[in-house]
Amino acid sequence: MEKKNIYMVQPNYLYGKSAHLPYAAGTIAAFAWNNENVKANYDLISIQFLRESIEKAVRQTENPFLIGFSTYIWNFEYNKALAKRFKELYPNCVILFGGHHVGPGTELLETYDFIDILIHGEGEEPFTQVLLSYLGMLKLESIPNLSFRKNGNLYTSAFKAYTCCDYKSPYLEGCFDKFFIEYPELDFMFLFETNRGCAYNCSYCDWGNLKTKIRQFPMERIRKELEWAVKNKIEFFGCADANFGILSRDEDIIDCLIEFKNKTGYPQKFQTSYAKNNSDRIFNIGKKLDENDMNKGVTLAFQTMSPIAAENVGRSNISITHYTQLMKMYNAARIPTYTELILGLPGETYKSFASGINQLIKAGQHHSIYIHNCEWLPCSTMGSKEYVDKYKIGTTFIPLNQPHMESPKGDEIPEYSQIVTETYSMDNNMWINMNMLSYAVQCFHHMNLLQFFAIYLFSEKNVEYIDFYERLLDYMAQNPVTVGGQVFGKILRMLQDVVSGKGSLVCYDKRFGDVAWPFEEYAFLDIVYWHDKFYDEIKDFLISFDFRADILNDLLLYQRNMIKIPNKCDTVFETAYNFHEYFAVLFEGNKGILVKQKNIVTVKDYNIIKTWEDYARFVVWYGRKESKNIYTDSVTVKE
Ligand code: SF4
Predict the structure, then answer these.
(1) How open is the CA angle 178-184-185, to the nearest 5 degrees?
(2) Angle 23-32/124-133 helices, nearest 10 degrees?
(3) Strand runs (DSSP E) across 496-545, as ranges?
(4) Exposure pattern of 283-321 as b/e (b: 16+ CB <10 Å)?
(5) DSSP conformational letter for 615
(6) Distance between Cα 207 and ligand 1 center (Å)
(7) pLDDT by residue (tens digit) across 554-611?
(8) Which CA distances in Å does 529 have to 325, 451, 532, 566, 616?
(9) Closest Cα to atom 4 of ligand 1
């Protein structure tokens, strides 16, 4: 008997030359085609991973029996358009949607008549069972976690939490091998799981809502997958675990990665989400990665510092005392860390948000804070009607909020993000003000443009960090033609556009390449583009802090020379104070003593970047978590 043709679709954007391998579709395929009946009766013809034009995708498809779409924010609209077209051309073809964007119940089936089956949650077992059902071996209604059409009616089957983790690897089953031959021009990113599931249930996340315990993949499988990626010379490894470092064997996995890097040069970088309750184990992992130049920053996540918001989203955080100790430990070992916050959680106000950022910086987080706008996800607890009603969640559609993806082309099907711009504790204006503060802190403090001033003023004159940045925002608003005033004025207008339903949270600028920039990185780039003008102008603002003139001038000289810019050769300058040593001591969490002594500071750039496009990509995009935008190791000081 002729086998039936199955197609899978998990399209994603390109990030320059880099593409994600379609891991979700691959895991499902690897599991399904390990079943003898599936193998004997179905052919997996292809897994589509690029956003081809609809016509091209259709042309590449022949007599499909079933097409499975893996769906998330970045491909929902595209998948719907493609699925609709397939249904028009092949009315008998089964259209199946799965993935994180498939909400509970039959709503998607009610709205889109071209979809036949939904898989809710994990896909390996139900997808295989659906294929078996079309061989008459099972009834659709007996398969857990499905919604489907039958005789003109819609049904949802019973929920099941999966406990198995003996799933085949898509890498080892060869699901992606041909991509390396067919697309030699692309660099692929490697995503792997060492375990699946999350012990927590944060209301904004659609992962915890799957209600599955942590299940460990066998070490043997993990090691072989890593070997596969090394053999294919993949530079970037991302681990998709929800809480990497939660298990003692995670340190062994890192040892294995380091062993590979030392033997072969691959991987070059490793990134993951670390476990929330940061432990000695995670410190050891961060240290090892850092020593081998593979660290993309250790996460010290909070998401919110407001106890009310934390309770509303079901999140328990480490205490600020513990966080301060951790910061001291990581800073002393010079291991980069970053702290994540989510803007717009219910219960958060401008005051609690500003005070939270202030506490984090005071605790020693000068390296990196990433502040994400809260995205409303249909499969999260926040996605439910009860939650929306209870916390008065209001959302706004914006073009896909995905930094660094290529700009949309003319015929591109737009994707959307739905972000929280209102809650019972935050109105639209407050959302705008919180964002302005967020961008100012990330751009000027954590991307270092005025960081030395903020630290000096806090240490010597008790100026709270947040007061410094609020005053800076006021200054820029009052001086709209300055470099800072212009870019922050543009950001303000774009935020106002967002709440009126016609804005975006990324911007494009040809000077910095053809990628989407989040506002804080865009502001940084635009200011550094006008570096000298910015530092000349900003003196006017800094004077208002009652500095001694010699300290102000010296510190300004030090600050402006520490920012990396394209085509900068060695710089030598003289300061009358020991600023370099003073800040080094402060960064380690100790009290710096400012001493008046002549210092000759030499800044050497060992990796001169020639163009603004390369600067934007390598220093700001790739290098932000490692603070590549500032000279630190290449600075020598003579007294
Ligand atoms: S945010 Fe992280 S810790 Fe919270 S539920 Fe999602 S995966 Fe788990």
Answers:
(1) 140
(2) 50
(3) 506-507, 517-518
(4) bebbbbbbebebbbbbbbbbbbbbeebbebbebebeeee
(5) I
(6) 6
(7) 999 999 999 999 998 788 999 999 999 999 999 888 888 999 999 898 988 888 899 9
(8) 37, 18, 9, 9, 10
(9) 202
Distance 8 CA to ligand 1 centre (A): 28
DSSP 3-state of 412: coil
Rounded percentage of the chain residues whose pLDDT exceeds 70: 99
CA of 209, closest atom in ligand 1: 5
How do 635-638 and 596-603 pair as beta strands? antiparallel
Strand partners, 423: 426
Q: Which atom of ligand 1 is nearest to the CA of 206?
A: 6
* 357: phi then psi, degrees, rounded to nearest 5: -65, -40
With cut-offs at 50, 70 and 90, classify the pLDDT of residue 278: low
Task: Return the structure tokens found at 487.
Answer: 């870019």
114 in Cβ contact with 93 (< 8 Å): no
* Residue 209 pLDDT > 70: no
Q: Which amino acid would we find at residue 127?
A: F
Q: Which H or E run includes 637? A: strand 635-638
Query: 197 CA to middle of ligand 1, Å?
Result: 9
Strand partners, 9: 48, 69
Distance (Å, rounded) from C-alpha 67 to C-alpha 61?
A: 10
Ligand 1 pocket test: pick from 202, 276, 312, 377 the residue with the most ligand atoms within 8 Å of its Cβ. 202
Select from 486, 518, 317 the least CA-distant residue to 419: 518
Ligand 1 midpoint to CA 195 (Å): 14
Which helix (H) or strand (E) covers residue 190, if one does? strand 187-192
* Overall residue count recorded for the chain in this entry: 639
Q: Which ligand 1 atom is at minimum distance from the Cα of 303?
A: 1
* Pocket, ligand 1, Cβ cutoff 6 A: 198, 200-202, 205, 207-208, 242, 276
Rounded-to-integer distance, Cα 285 and Cα 639, Å: 37
Q: Give 235 Cα–ligand 1 centroid separation in angstroms.
A: 27
Q: What is the pLDDT of residues 282-308, one digit of tens each?
A: 999 999 998 998 877 788 878 899 999
The residue type at 600: I
Query: Letter for the amino acid at 221?
Result: R
Write out 270-293 in H/E/C secondary structure.
EECCECCCCCHHHHHHHHHHHHCC
Q: How far is CA 614 from CA 154, 232, 611, 617, 618, in A?
A: 53, 26, 5, 5, 6
- Nearest by Cα to 120 from 139, 142, 104: 104
Q: Which residue has the tokens 């910095």?
A: 512
One-letter amino acid of 175: C
CA–CA dist 132, 190 (Å, integer): 30
Q: Which atom of ligand 1 is nearest to the CA of 273?
A: 2
Nearest residue to 175 via CA among 5, 8, 3:
8
Can you say how many angstroms the Cα of residue 259 is from the centroid of all Cα atoms in its chain?
27
Please tell me the residue having the least CA distance from ligand 1 atom 3: 200
Give the distance (Å) from ligand 1 centre to CA of residue 305.
Answer: 16
Ligand 1 atom with the smallest distance to the CA of 242 is: 7
The arithmetic mean of pLDDT across residues 105-132, rounded, is: 96
For residue 267, say if its preceding peptide bond is cis, omega within 30 degrees of 0: yes
CA of 199 to the centre of ligand 1 (A): 8
Q: Give the strands of the sheet with 18-20, arranged side by side.
A: 18-20, 187-192, 236-239, 269-271
Residue of 205, 278, 370 to test ligand 1 pocket, by largest number of atoms within 8 Å of CB: 205
Q: How far apart are CA 36 and CA 535, in angstroms?
A: 69
* Distance, CA of 582 to CA of 595 (rounded, Å): 8
